[in-house]
Design a protein that fits this description.
alpha+beta
């Protein structure tokens, strides 16, 4: 019996049979992370009460914080921009969401 055909970009030399191909794209799911959920649900409220409840302990609210949080919430979301990636060898396509490029 012949071995199943494997696309060139999925083949890894020396990989054990049945191993997950290293060239397979696995999109991240930013909306599924606990940090994303917390910021999405609670950041607006925090920004409204920060001065009253936390400024005396942690210092003044930094003006850059809302910008960083907004960029984080938009990072990796298809609705905020994406590139279509196409394999020339097999014509497989997928969408790659743009990144905010911040860590």
């Amino acid at each position: 019996m012949a071995a199943p055909a494997v696309a060139d970009h999925e083949h890894r030399v020396g990989a054990p049979p049945g191993a997950q191909p290293s060239g397979v794209y696995r999109p991240r799911r930013p909306c599924a992370s606990p940090l994303y959920g917390l910021l999405d649900r609670r950041f607006r409220h925090l920004s409204l009460v920060y001065d009253e409840r936390f400024a005396h302990t942690y210092g003044p609210w930094r003006a850059v914080v809302p910008t960083v949080v907004d960029r984080f919430l938009a990072c990796g979301i298809l609705e905020h921009g994406f590139a279509r990636i196409r394999c020339d060898a097999c014509a497989h396509e997928y969408l790659l969401a743009f990144s905010c490029r911040s860590r």
